[in-house]
Amino acid sequence: MNKGIYQHFSIEDRPFLDKGMEWIKKVEDSYAPFLTPFINPHQEKLLKILAKTYGLACSSSGEFVSSEYVRVLLYPDYFQPEFSDFEISLQEIVYSNKFEHLTHAKILGTVINQLGIERKLFGDILVDEERAQIMINQQFLLLFQDGLKKIGRIPVSLEERPFTEKIDKLEQYRELDLCVSSFRLDVLLSNVLKLSRNQANQLIEKKLVQVNYHVVDKSDYIVQVGDLISVRKFGRLRLLQDKGQTKKEKKKITVQLLLSK
Asked: How many alpha carbons lie under 13 Å from residue 233 in its C-beta half-sphere?
């Protein structure tokens, strides 16, 4: 790829940029559509920038069905994508919820840690008080059906559902206006989550903090406007605005906050 494009992105994004260029080259060489695995919103944003830069059309499954993780189609101008082209199956995780409820963390932990299934093979995990669902790459459906028999102590099975029955993902973010001394990661976490600097540093050192879906283990990491920060067991926050400085040279910011339930 044109190495000059690297200067517009962070070092952490370089492996995905290289992968994105491989996908783009496949479309250019074959003059046929290419379907990506599931990618996160930050990767989706990067891929759309690359596609535009190299004159390719692209479309996301999220444009058809709302979701966080998506599959993206890269294609020549002649192709007109439909939702079926994204090859996504919505599976209900059927279980008895009389005594215990499945959580996002339990489902994710079972799929990745116990079954050893890569994150790119499945999309959103959706849960409410009574139900649980998972969006899966259709080509690997048997892998999930054969492997996912129990989550923790709870027996489960998978059943296909139409996307009209998808659980709505209702997340209530709230916005906070704050004044901070800097855009260092530990400073933001300390102020937003009401932690001591030492507590914030410990979360970072234990690799419990991600910025734009990358683990960050440096407390002095400088957060940029638009960055999404995820803190295990605390929730998510996004730096929405830099509103300048106060008379005491504090930085005025607006953050968007979603606390874990």
From this structure: 6
Q: Which residues pair with 228 in a beta bridge?
A: 238
Task: Give mean pLDDT in consecutive 10-residue pieces for the chain, a chain of 261 residues.
Answer: 68 92 96 97 94 94 96 95 97 91 93 95 94 97 96 95 91 87 96 95 96 94 94 92 91 86 49
Tell me the C-alpha distance between 107 and 84, whole Å: 26
Q: Which residue in this structure is represented by tokens 């200067």?
A: 7
pLDDT confidence of residue 1: 52
* β pairing state of 88-94 and 132-137: antiparallel
Question: CA dist 13 to 43, 72, 120, 260, Å?
Answer: 8, 17, 16, 26
Instruction: Give the homologous superfamily in CATH for domain 174-259.
Output: RNA-binding S4 domain (3.10.290.10)
How far from the centroid of its chain's Cα atoms is residue 39's Cα? 7
Please report which helix (H) or strand (E) contains residue 14, including its range: helix 14-30
Q: What share of the chain is helix, strand, coil (3-state, %, to 5)?
A: 35, 30, 35
**pLDDT (tens digit, 9 = 90+) per residue, 167-204?**
987 667 889 999 999 999 999 999 999 999 999 999 99
Q: What is the CATH architecture assignment of 11-82?
A: 2-Layer Sandwich (3.30)
Q: What are phi and psi of 222, to 5 degrees?
A: -95, 120
CATH architecture of 88-165: 2-Layer Sandwich (3.30)
